[in-house]
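Lab notebook, bench 4. We co-purified these components, and the gel suggests they stay together. Before we commit to crystallization screens, I want a quick structural picture of the whole thing.
Request: model the full complex, all chains together.
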Amino acid sequence: MLADIEELVSCESPSADLDALAASADVVARVGGRLLGAEPERIVIDSRNHLRWRLGSGPARVLLLAHHDTVWPLGSLDTHPFTMTGGVLRGPGCFDMKTGLVLALHATAAVGVPDGVTILVTADEEVGSPTSRTLIEQEAAGCAAALVLEGAAAGGALKTERKGVSLYRIRAEGRAAHAGLEPERGVNATVELAHQILAVIGLADPGRGTTATPTRLAAGHTTNTVPADGEFAVDVRMWDRAEQDRIDAVMHALRPAVPGARLVVSGGPNRPPMAAASSADLFARAAVLAAGLGLPPLRSAAVGGASDGNFTAGAGTPTLDGLGAVGGGAHADDEHVLIDALPGRAALVAALLGSIALHDRG
Ligand SMILES: [Zn+2]
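Here is the predicted assembly.
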């Protein structure tokens, strides 16, 4: 597993670089082909290389889900080289989620490449899965389980509940004027955005865990002109779909506060919430299997970050997430994987596969 992780981490694969992703898909196909004795289908959508292994002839019972893109730009290996020291493995994308990808392949090989298992490795998870979403939902439909190999929560906990995500862009249009000579003739887009930013913050509901966070902001062109236009982005997270609908209705009903200004609101729900109910049965099963393997008691965690597990859960498929690497520092300088935890993790995924794919048939 360590050699395969090194091979994958050493092939950089930022979400924005289609050529790098094609090369990365080659590496994943080669490693997986060796382990599974089967070549993947290469599914290219808008020049993005996704890979799919449909194992056996029957309908899929289990979907193993991983992604091979990372948030790390080309050249990150120079500043964050692959290393293994003191039981800790490092390198761009090692935790999110090349180790999980390797775990999926090894676990599948360990149970003898069972019938009824589909492994899907996508190439755009870190940018919201625009080209793979439909593919993910189609592969998940009808499966008894979607096992997502994203990195674990703190201490190795599985992720059994994830917030949903909605993304918006709020654009204000006003009228330019000279800020010194005749500012009164202008309609100030920056001031309009200020009103809207405060309105958006007011949509949060801490009691329900709903956050509404204004993020990137830009307005105007020169320092002595009343800005004619500007926009800001909003990241909204929530635990349930009713909240997602509430926010969406309010966002699209925002009205301008500055006389003469115009507002254009775009965007909407990106990933639905992954509710605890979609994970409960699988988590209980995993906890029993972990105990049987002599692993430490399995813990669960609810997290604000979304993954493609939100899509499989949203499609109605029981979903268990965070089955990948134990470690931390996703998207950060201290990204790392704990080497000692790898065998136990692979054994757990293999046990889940065996239990669902082999023993629940018919
Ligand atoms: Zn990830």
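Residues 337 and 357 are 28 Å apart (CA to CA). Worth comparing against the SEC data before the next meeting. Residues 67, 96-97, 125, 150, 307 surround zinc ion (CB under 6 Å).
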